[in-house]
Amino acid sequence: FRAQCSQRLQCPRMDLCHVPAAREKGWYLALMAPNVKGPNYAWLDPSRLYCHPQGLQDCVADLLQPFQGDAIDVVAGIDAMGFILGAAAAATLRKGFLAIRKAGHLCVQTVAQPYTDYSGREKVMEVRTDAISPGLRILLVDQWVETGGTMRAAIELVERLGGVVAGVAAICIESSEGGKWIQERYKCSHCVPPRLQPRFDQHQ
Question: Which residue range forms the structural domain that includes residue 55?
């Protein structure tokens, strides 16, 4: 298997087969690549984590562990990178997946919510109005919670339609004002060990 994996997946700069002997929570965080293009981009790129078979599986398992036994009806992923983890989480839980989109992509009736993203840009998020019924319990998933503006907009959309936020999951929830606001009010899950949280908060 190792030989087949190497032939199919490995390239000179990306070994997608190596798995550490001790897979502690968050081991896969080291797969992420730092920003080399400047301040207009996110400070880390998780793409290699998603390409790594065991890394992705372990990341999703760690995100879902706190919600074992909880009532979850639907997993919602936030446009765009939240679609990856959200769909993987939905498949693992055997639940449906709902896409919460940036405005302008849905051709059906929607409800919209303006927000400011991590870069300070003003945007609008929307979701189809028929997807969330009163009392529906939704696990919200995104790649990252930095300032919390994007996730708070998703929370607002769910609750305006009568849904219940069953939880919030992201690879990292930073200890920003917005991140703390979310963690104080909702059950949350992320993958960063406490000893590494200060480094992630400082984007190191």
Answer: 32-202
